[in-house]
Amino acid sequence: MGSWEVWKVEILSAAYPPPHLNTYNLLVLTVATKESEGFRRFKRSAQFFNYKIQALGLGEDWDGDKETSAGGGLKVRLLKKALEKHADKENLVILFTDRWVPGGFLGGGQHVWGGELAEVGGRLATLAVMEPCPCCSLSPSFLQERINITLDHRCRIFQNLVGALDEVVLKFEMGHVRARNLAYDTLPVLIHGNGPTKLQLNYLGNYIPRFWTFETGCTVCDEGLRSLKGIGDEALPVVLVSVFIEQPTPFLSLFFQRLLRLHYPRKQLRLFIHNHEQHHKAQVEQFLAEHGGEYKSVKLVGPEVRVANADARNMGADLCRQDRGCTYYFSVDADVALTEPKTLRLLIEQNKNVIAPLMTRHGRLWSNFWGAMSADGYYARSEDYVDIVQRRRVGVWNVPYISNIYLIKGSALRAELQQTDLFHHSKLDADMAFCANIRQQDVFMFLTNRHTFGHLLSLDSYQTTHLHNDLWEVFSNPEDWKEKYIHENYTRALAGKLVEMPCPDVYWFPIFTETACDELVEEMEHYGQWSLGDNKDNRIQGGYENVPTIDIHMNQISFEREWHKFLVEYIAPMTEKLYPGYYTRAQFDLAFVVRYKPDEQPSLMPHHDASTFTVNIALNRVGVDYEGGGCRFLRYNCSIRAPRKGWTLMHPGRLTHYHEGLPTTKGTRYIAVSFVDP
Question: Coiled coil located at which positions (predicted)?
Fold first, then answer.
C-alpha cells in the first residue's frame, strides 16, 4: 500500500478574483492523500485569493500505480461522494483538479469564469473542461453537443504546460504577476504541469500569484520561519556537518578557518569528513588534532579507505538519518568559500526540507544551482538565472538542481528521503543523482540569495607541484588569495590611514600577511638554489651584477607572472596614491628574495637600484628571527633599523635614494625586492 498525492496542479495566477464570482460560491476540490510541498503550495495560492479548498482522501492509502493507473477509480469515487454532499446547494461553482494537476497553484481569472451551464444533482453549476493533452480524442463538438460541457481550448481558465512550454510566459504588471498564453493572448486561471513540465511549473510558482514581483520583491520569504532567537546553545538543533574533499583544492586552510567561524556552538555540531586526497591528509589531520575535541563527535574517512564520492556522501547522509538526535544535515564541499558566519543559522531559519545558499565563482555566472534543465536532464539557463546569480532578484527559489553546499532536515532524511542510496541514479554523477532522486520523491529544492554567503573556488588550473601551491592562485581565486596573503590593514593603507614616511620620500605600509611571508621564504628554501653572491650572474642580461646578493629570482620558481599580478593589483595603486602624477604598469626586470646571514652575506654595499621605484618587503621579524639588519639612505643619513614583518618600504630607485643594507649580526634575514619600471 502506498500513498497517492497531488503535486502538479497548480497556480491561481490572476491579480484579482473574477468580479462576477461574487454571485456564486466557489469550492475547489482536489484529491491528495498526504500533504506534500506541492500540495501546500496549491493551498497557499488558493488562500491568496480566499478560495475555499477541500482536499479529498487526506490520510487514506493509495493502492494504485500513480504513474500508470487511472486512479483505480479512487478519485472518481471521492469526487462523486463529495458532489452528492453539495447536490442541493444553490449558486455553487465547483472547480475540480485531479491528480494529474497536482500540488500546484491557481491564479484567479479576471473575466473567464463564464461557461456552459450543466445540471448536476438537479442544480445548476458552471462547468468547463481543461484543454486535453495530445493523446486525448474528445472533440469540442462532442463535448458541447452531447454533454453540454465547454472545452477551454483557448486556455482562458486552464493552461496545460505539456506541449506549450514556449507559449507560456510570466507577465509582470503594476505589482502583479500572471501567466500569459502567447498563442491566444489569454491569462489562464489554473496552470497544469505534469510529467516533464513539473520543473517549469516550479519556476512559475516562484512568482505566481504575486509571490515575487519587481515592486515588492519576495512576499513569502518570511513565512513559516523557524526563529533561533533567544535559544540557548544547548537547546539549539544538533547539526551533522559533512565536509567533502574530493579533489586537490586550494585554500583548504581557509576553508577550515571559515568552518571554525560559523556562529553555531561546536558542541551542537557533529563532524563528518571525507578526504579523498592524500595531498590534503596532513592538513585535515592537523585541523582535527587542534579542534576535533571541540565538536560533539567526529568521524574521518581518509584517502587510505578508498571510498568513492557517491558512497561517501551516502555515508554522511545516513549518519544523520540513523541518528534521531540529528535535526539537520549540512553538506559542504571543500571548494566552497563560506564567508558569512551566520550561514547555518540563516538556512535553518528558512525552515525548508532542502535548501542551499547561493554560491558563485568570482567574475563568472557559474553557480551551485540550475534554474532549468534540458530535456535530457542537463543544464539549461532559465529566464531569471542571471538576475538570481547577480542578486538583481532576491528571494528563496524553487530550483531543479543544487550542489556544493546545502542543508537537509533530518526528518526529511527519515521520511521522504529515507532511501539509503541518494547519490546513485542511473549513470549520473553524484550531485546530479542526488537532485534526480530528490525530484523523484516530489521534494522541493530551494536556493536562497537573500544574503551574500560566499563563493565557489575555481579548481580548473590548481597544481600541486609546489610546496605552497596557494601562492600561485592569484589569477584563479583572487578573493581567497587576497584573504590569505594580503595584510588585513592594506585597505586602510590605501586610504592613507596607515602609511608612514620614516625617511624623505620613503614610504612604509603593510602589504603581506605573516602567512605570505612564511610561505614565500619556505618556498625559496625548498627550491634551495641560492646564488653565490658574486658579480657573475647568468640569470640576468649581460651576465654581470654590479651589486650582487645571495638570492633566488621569482622566475626561478616560475612565479614571475603571479608576482607581476601582485604588483599590479596591490603595489601600483599605492604608488599612484603616494607619488601623485606617476602611473605605473608595474613592469620589472628583477624580482627576488634576498637572504642575509652573518657568515654568508651580512650586508650590502651602498648603491642605486636599477628602477624608477623599489619595493622592499620584510619577510621575517627582527629580534626574533635575526638581529641587526635594516636599510640606510646615505643622502639623508636616515636609517630604518627595525623593519616590520609583512610591511614594505617603497622608495625611488635612481639618483636620489642612494642606500645600503645594514649588517645582520645574528640569525637569518629575508626580504623580497622588486625593481619596478627599470
Answer: none
